[in-house]
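Hi all, posting the design record for the shared folder.

TITLE: backbone redesign
STEP: 1 of 1
STRUCTURE INPUT:
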């Protein structure tokens, strides 16, 4: 499963919902929204018994109250991308919310094997905020790398995916689980999934989030694992702990029935560690870990800056 939904693309063009449901789109490997990287407005909160220390409990209670107020006007987060402990790139995420409209951007740059492999991807998402729900309207993804480049566009209407267009195209295969109209209802794009995850109420973990990445419709099921300390280069005044959630990848449709999908669905090692930011009403992804057959991929935040709706500024340097 590709990190941060930056995947090798090849989607059969589809300009309407019926075409999507009839064929399904093809875009390489499945993606995690943590961001997704990521990951999500049709979440299903579930009651869970969690034992956390006083700092986490206080942060969660404060975040619950803050979640009822306005969303932060700006968030900028920078991440180091590593594979098997080796630094292979950077990912930058930005959100801007004005009134009831949001704009999200995600930019990644990867390089490995002394530059023999390089890859760049840029994603953008636009939509509206309705209370605690983020509703996407359009999603754009462009990428270029060693030997491959392409683009993806998704549109949304009536709380559902309404169209997908991608270049290059790849013919459908017999082992792909077909999409239906029901699969497209309520699904979020990968970037919108990130901001939906950040509004966790009392906990970022007790939830199930639906994602469509242009190819696959899948759910991310989060459950509480524990907590870990967070070291800062400069004191931020925020809780110095992160709440760690297990993430279960549940393929719904658009995926291939192969060993890779089965291995990812059976994995118990996918994790997202969220930092509570009570004064902004957020849970910010601090660390994402994804085990693969070849090793472990991870994202770790290096700097996060937040401008609240009241124009207060918060900054973390890790």
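Okay, here is what came back for every position:
SEQUENCE:
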């Amino acid at each position: 499963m590709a990190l941060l939904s930056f995947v090798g693309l090849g989607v059969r063009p589809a300009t309407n919902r019926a075409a999507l449901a009839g064929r399904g789109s093809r875009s390489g490997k499945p993606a995690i929204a943590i961001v997704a990287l990521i990951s999500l407005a049709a979440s299903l909160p579930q009651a869970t018994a969690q034992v956390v220390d006083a700092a986490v409990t206080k942060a969660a209670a404060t975040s619950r109250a803050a979640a009822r107020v306005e969303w932060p006007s700006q968030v900028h987060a920078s991440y180091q991308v590593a594979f098997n402990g080796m630094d292979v790139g950077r990912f930058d995420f930005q959100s801007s919310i004005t009134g009831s409209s949001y704009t999200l951007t995600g930019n990644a740059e990867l390089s490995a094997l002394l530059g023999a492999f390089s890859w760049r991807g840029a994603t953008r998402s636009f939509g509206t905020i309705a209370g605690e729900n983020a509703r996407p309207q359009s999603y754009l993804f462009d990428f270029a790398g060693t030997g491959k480049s392409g683009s993806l566009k998704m549109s949304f209407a009536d709380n559902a995916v309404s169209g997908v267009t991608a270049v290059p195209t790849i013919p459908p295969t017999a082992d792909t689980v077909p999409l239906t109209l029901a699969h497209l209802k309520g699904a979020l794009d990968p970037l919108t999934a990130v901001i939906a995850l950040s509004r966790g109420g009392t906990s970022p973990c007790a939830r199930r989030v639906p994602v469509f990445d242009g190819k696959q419709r899948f759910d991310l099921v989060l459950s509480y694992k524990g907590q870990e300390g967070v070291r800062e280069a400069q004191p931020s005044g925020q809780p110095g702990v992160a709440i760690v959630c297990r993430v279960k990848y549940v393929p719904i449709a658009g995926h291939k029935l192969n060993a890779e999908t089965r291995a990812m669905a059976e994995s118990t090692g996918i994790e997202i560690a969220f930092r509570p930011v009570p004064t902004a009403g957020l849970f910010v992804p601090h660390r994402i870990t994804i085990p693969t057959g070849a090793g472990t991929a991870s994202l770790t935040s290096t700097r996060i800056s937040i401008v609240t709706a009241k124009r207060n500024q918060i900054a973390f340097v890790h």
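COMMENT: The helical segments are 17-23, 54-66, 181-184, 190-198, 259-266.
Let me know if anyone wants the other runs.
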